[in-house]
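User: Sorry, what's this?
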Amino acid sequence: MKRSAQLAFAISVFYVSLWHGAQSHAGDPAISDPAKVDSAYDYIGEYLGDWQGKPAGVQVSTRKGDSLFYAKLFQGGLPGIGWDGTKPLVFNGNEAGSQLRLVAESGSAQMEVTSSKVTLADVDNRAELRKVSRRGVSLGMKPPSGAKILFDGSSTDAFKSASMTSDGLLKAGAETVDPIGSCRLHLEFRTPYMPKSEDQKRGNSGIYIQRRYEVQILESFGQDVVFNGCGALYRQREPNLNMALPPLVWQTYDIFFIAAKFDADGNKTAPAQISVIHNGVPVHYRTAIASKTGAGKPEGPEPLPLLLQDHSDPIVYRNVWMQSANSGSLTFDSAPTKTAEQVLNLPVHSQAPVTFPVGIRTY
């Protein structure tokens, strides 16, 4: 945020009002305080159980752009924990008294949703799925030896043009003082609740590595996988899965980045490479980045800072740290491999490929 001395007070007042939702997208206040949500928020979330004798998962969210609700029924479980990859069945509907009533877009199945469970029924079956909450395996992870702490809630000294909320969280719009090269980056972020906003106007921010390459942040919970949704390499490559959690739930990115290589004449000899673990599940694996993404700076041999993009929505960050590849303790050759624990250097609980442990709490 650029300020002149003459206008500093006026601009700061404007941005405070923007942060607290006075300014919003299409009449949709951006709620960043979990204590200030409406009653509809209680339905939003994930549910697990059995349907037609097999494991199943449900994600319930508000439909983009209107007041209706919708849900997706996943066979095998939820994305990242059991879903078999088949196309989910979509349900639509609205609030009826103290519950939601949703109807499948195809077939005869119907769904009733309360704040703690989903009841599914069709002509021959009836089942209840309990509400759960998930957390990535790296949530709250302490920085390893040799890592540089960028933000721990105590100050914004590692950033320029940075500010904190009253409860010690980092606001979007911060840019590191120092440039970054090949590294491992950990950060935790929380998107606001904006049930009536659409697409890129719904909890938008981004992690601009070297101010060139954006890993998108968006309130994409329950949405289809797209090239500009949460976890995407913005408009260049969609994530393998949509691992976004509900709004106002803390999420994690663990990013392994290898900078592009250039010869003495400034010609690129190798593209930048990235692996992204979103809430404990790899959504990009050693992916070559073809060029700068979106509004990123042009590629070049010189390192540039890390930018946490300000897109006018109250995204907040915490526990941000970076481990340089030059520290001698970071090995890209072995990360990511089979399990989230191996990727993040955590104690290995399971060697089962593809299945990634994610903390779950039932209601």
Remarks:
- The longest helix spans residues 8-19.
- The longest strand covers residues 126-135.
- Confidence is low (pLDDT under 50) at residues 1-26, 327-358.
- Helices lie at 8-19, 340-343.
